[in-house]
Amino acid sequence: MDMRNTLKTLCQAYGPTGNEGSVAQVIREMVAPVADEMTTDAMGNLIVTKKGRGQGRLMMAAHMDEIGLMVTYVEEDGFLRIDAVGGVRPQTTAFRQIRFENGVTGVVGYESAKVKNFAELTFSRLFVDIGASSREEALEKVSIGDIAHFTSDYVDMGRRVCSKSMDNRAGCAVLVEMLKGLEDAAMDVVAVFTVQEEVGLRGAKTAAWSVNPDVGVALDVTSAADHPGAPTAAMKLGQGPCVKIKDASVICTPSVVAWLEQAARDAQVPWQREVLTAGGTDTAAMQMTGAGIPAGCISLATRYIHSQGEVLQISDLEQAALLLIQAAKTGYNS
Question: Using CA atoms, how far apart are residues 79 and 107, in angstroms rounded to an integer?
Fold first, then answer.
């Protein structure tokens, strides 16, 4: 299992919400040797199927998109006005470096003379400096509607790693490594690398309709509660993958929770239960598709989510992949 290199490659790819094609291509090349079928649907979801023994269909979903910034207007002096794409906080955006798909880079500034209280900073006071001195020069580099992602170094901290876009390239990395290691599955495994999760679970909704699985499992990050000032919660780095019980969007199907926990026992990996009081994942989209699909989620405890320095522990990802391989081998019986 080469989780470190897989995660690093995925984190460094460009793929803000609505522009996930580059990430999908990287994943396609990674999983092509082990896939029985691969398709891309109208939304841009990459759907990878690995045949099992025919005991139903298991959909596993991990979203490819990362948060970003969209150009809304260009000032006469060449500065760009922007808005959030996904859950971007203005306070964590100021002075950050960004990059557009065509390679143009910039830095986010704010109207410091007009913002007396930094806690009250809004996107209307932010702008991007791409080195242009006029609107015409800026428009030679970018267009209205272009989306940038944040840039940051991928830092190997030993047991832990730090990067932008761990949300949710970490889940994608687990799904890639699961596919590589999966043999003799009870169910047909349909791994869906979804789009536009950050703006409303959109890709998972359409994919679940077309896949029509017997059971669904999402892979995503969750807020770690093991650092100073964190909310009181159970999720910690290094304690294994988290089996979601609920978040603000879903109460996971109890039989799916029990199946995933038994898979952790069988695979002899540690796990922890996740109760999140906010947030949402592709789990909800799958559960509410059609007449309803039993659904659960494996989460990865992550610090500083939706920042350019998200931190998680590699062993949690490796153990998550082993848990999912075991779940697929056993199969789900409601």
Answer: 10
